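Section 5: illustrative case.
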């Protein structure tokens, strides 16, 4: 396997981990956006505590993906960030305000005006970030015949991403985050033997998961209408991953209904992973269709090899640390 292909696989792994783990944290805020003024003290504390040990760690994957793009595929990084400058900056602003709101609110301030105001900021920011990231994927899925190596042609026009297909993908990303978090919180409530919260989050996971399934089917139709080159890639090359996503999504709902929560969370994660990997396979060999290919954008082979070695060494430290963190705070408690 070529070093560039290995780096692409590492990039996709980072993207999947951020979508699943970071998406679960965004989803808590999405639910907070809907329930900030109605949540009981018990539910509020439960949601707040569920995020506490891991929410900072999850953004490591976003940094990882950006750094891989910047160093491994610099020309693609330059073109893509110019093209999605609007949603990218708004999404990053959402992450910053969301972190501040989480740090400045908490169960200890329950009922205070300050806590309620920060809850509003937390909820709005948690919706803004995944919406913008989803819209950015819509921009990247289009054909860009005017994108060339002449930087004067790169555009960050707001109309590129504020349109119906991109906004649909933004709302789909928000819904996916809400689904992931509801499934994970159902498992957390079950492990902590909080029967009332287990029932509450299980119901929410089932109905929002069903809604996401309907949106995913609508997304296929939108891809056929708005992203013909991407749709051809899904139909010709990525169809096994599309089928795997459908099977994983349906399996997650069935397992939630049967109260097999750990297995359900695995299926939900697999559904998200196969959606992202299917998109990447459909786009291959392009970063931006129809001109900007992976081969054109790669750094020199010596740089790619050095990056792969550095990532392998870094994983020897990061993977056990992350696994230990999740084991400590997300495992069954006595």
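Designed sequence:
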């Amino acid at each position: 396997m070529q070093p560039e292909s290995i780096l692409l696989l590492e990039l996709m792994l980072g993207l999947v981990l951020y979508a699943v783990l970071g998406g679960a944290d965004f989803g808590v805020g999405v639910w907070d956006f809907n329930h900030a003024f109605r949540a009981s003290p018990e539910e509020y504390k439960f949601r707040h505590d569920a995020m506490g040990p891991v929410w900072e760690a999850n953004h490591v994957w976003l940094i990882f993906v950006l750094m891989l793009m910047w160093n491994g595929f610099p020309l693609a990084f330059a073109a893509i960030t110019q093209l999605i400058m609007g949603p990218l900056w708004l999404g990053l602003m959402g992450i910053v305000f969301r972190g501040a709101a989480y740090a400045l609110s908490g169960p200890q301030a329950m009922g205070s005006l300050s806590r309620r105001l920060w809850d509003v900021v937390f909820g709005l920011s948690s919706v803004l970030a995944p919406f913008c990231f989803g819209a950015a994927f819509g921009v990247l899925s289009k054909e860009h015949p005017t994108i060339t190596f002449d930087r004067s042609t790169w555009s960050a026009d707001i109309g590129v991403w504020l349109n119906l297909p991109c906004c649909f993908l933004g709302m789909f990303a928000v819904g996916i985050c809400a689904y992931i978090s509801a499934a994970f919180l159902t498992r957390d409530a079950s492990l902590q033997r909080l029967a009332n919260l287990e029932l509450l989050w299980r119901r929410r996971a089932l109905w929002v998961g069903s809604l996401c399934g309907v949106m995913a089917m609508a997304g296929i139709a939108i891809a056929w209408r708005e992203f013909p080159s991407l749709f051809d890639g899904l139909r010709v090359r990525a169809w096994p991953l599309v089928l795997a996503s459908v099977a994983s999504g349906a399996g997650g709902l069935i397992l939630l209904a049967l109260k097999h929560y750990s297995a359900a969370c695995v299926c939900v994660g697999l559904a998200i992973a196969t959606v992202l990997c299917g998109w990447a396979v459909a786009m291959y060999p392009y970063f931006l269709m129809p001109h900007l290919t992976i081969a054109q954008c790669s750094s020199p082979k010596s740089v790619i090899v050095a990056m792969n070695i550095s990532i392998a060494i870094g994983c020897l430290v990061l993977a056990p640390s992350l696994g230990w963190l999740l084991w400590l705070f997300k495992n069954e408690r006595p």
